[in-house]
Write a structure and sequence with these properties.
10% strand; 3 strands; 9 helices; 3-stranded mixed beta sheet; 304 residues
C-alpha cells in the first residue's frame, strides 16, 4: 500500500476510535460525575479535534508535487504535529484547572458503579491498539504526524490507568483519589505535548539527522571503488525528509562521462535510504588540491 493510502487510512481510523471514546466517556461522566472520567472525556475530545486536523493535514501532505511545490507537500506534516501538541496542551490545562479547583473547594463527586471502571478499561485497551498500529505505520512511512499520534495514544494508556485508580479509590471511600488521579492525567497529557514539540522542532529548523544515519550516508558515498574521499558532507531535515549534499574526490583524468556515472551511482546509493529525499553530489578532481580537512567526516568514517 502506498504511503498516501497508509497515512489517510490511519488518520481516519484514529478519528473514528477517538470519536467513539469521547461519546462513551462523556456519557459515563454525565452519569457518575467522576472528575477522572471527565478528564479522560476531555482528553478524548481533544484527541477527536486534532484527529480531524490530522486527517486534513495528511490529505494535504500526501498530495503529489506540483508547479508551486516541486518537492511535494511533506513539509506540512511537522506543522500538523505541532497542532496536535497545541491541542494536547489545551486539554492538559483544562483537566489540571478542573482537578485543582475541585481539591481547593472540596467539591468532589464520588463515582458509584462499575460503568466507569469498564469504560476506562476499554479506553486503555483501545489506546494500546492505536499506539501499536500508529507507531508501526508512522515508522514504516516516515511520518512524524503518525508518530506523534502514537505517542499521544501511548500516554493515554497511562492516563486511563491513573483515572481508573482514581475511580476505584473514590468508589472504595477515598473521594480525593478522583481529583488526584485527574491531576496525574493532566501531567501525563502535558508531558506528551512537550515530547511532540521536541520531536518536531528538529524537522522545522533543519536539524541534522541522527549520527548513525549520517555515518550511513558517508559510508555509502565512500563505498564506491572510485571515490577516494569526501568532504563538506551536509545532511539536514526538510520537513520529515532529509536532503544531502556532499563533495567526493575522484581521479582527475576521468572523462566527463565517467565522472558523471560515479556521481549518479553515489546519488542512487544514498537515495536508497528511506529517510533521504534529494541528494546533491559535487565531483572534485583530487589533483587540483581542493581537498579539505573535514573533522566530522573523519570522525564518522573512523579515519582519525
Amino acid at each position: 500500500m502506498s504511503r498516501r493510502a497508509t497515512l489517510r487510512r490511519v488518520g481516519l481510523l484514529v478519528l473514528g476510535v477517538n470519536l467513539a471514546l469521547v461519546v462513551l466517556k462523556g456519557g459515563v461522566w454525565l452519569t457518575t460525575g467522576s472528575l477522572a472520567v471527565q478528564s479522560e472525556a476531555v482528553n478524548s475530545a481533544a484527541d477527536t479535534a486534532y484527529s480531524l486536523v490530522i486527517v486534513a493535514g495528511l490529505y494535504l501532505t500526501t498530495q503529489p508535487p506540483d508547479f508551486e511545490h516541486p518537492h511535494g507537500h511533506e513539509r506540512i506534516e511537522p506543522f500538523v504535529s505541532l497542532f496536535v501538541a497545541a491541542g494536547i496542551f489545551a486539554a492538559g490545562g483544562v483537566v489540571l484547572w478542573q482537578a485543582g479547583r475541585a481539591l481547593l473547594t472540596g467539591n468532589v463527586a464520588v463515582t458509584q458503579g462499575p460503568v466507569a471502571v469498564g469504560v476506562l478499561a476499554l479506553s486503555g485497551a483501545a489506546k494500546y491498539g492505536l499506539y501499536r498500529y500508529c507507531l508501526a505505520a508512522g515508522r514504516d512511512s516516515n511520518s512524524p504526524a503518525l508518530v506523534a499520534t502514537a505517542k499521544d495514544n501511548r500516554n493515554d494508556i497511562l492516563t486511563a490507568g491513573a483515572a481508573l485508580v482514581g475511580v476505584l479509590g473514590a468508589t472504595a471511600g477515598y473521594p480525593l483519589a478522583d481529583p488526584l488521579a485527574a491531576i496525574v492525567v493532566a501531567v501525563g497529557i502535558l508531558y506528551t505535548g512537550v515530547e511532540v514539540v521536541r520531536d518536531n522542532v528538529a524537522y522545522l529548523v533543519g536539524a541534522a539527522p541522527p549520527e548513525d544515519l549520517r555515518r550511513e550516508i558517508l559510508e555509502r558515498a565512500l563505498d564506491h571503488p572510485q571515490v577516494q574521499g569526501a568532504h563538506d558532507v551536509i545532511a539536514h531535515y526538510v520537513g520529515p525528509e532529509i536532503d544531502v549534499s556532499l563533495h567526493i574526490e575522484v581521479e582527475g583524468d576521468l572523462t566527463l562521462t565517467e565522472a558523471h556515472d560515479i556521481e549518479t551511482a553515489v546519488i542512487k546509493s544514498v537515495q536508497e535510504l528511506p529517510e533521504v529525499d534529494d541528494v546533491f553530489v559535487h565531483v572534485d578532481p583530487k589533483e587540483l588540491g581542493e581537498w579539505k580537512d573535514d573533522d566530522e567526516v573523519e570522525r564518522l568514517a573512523d579515519l582519525e
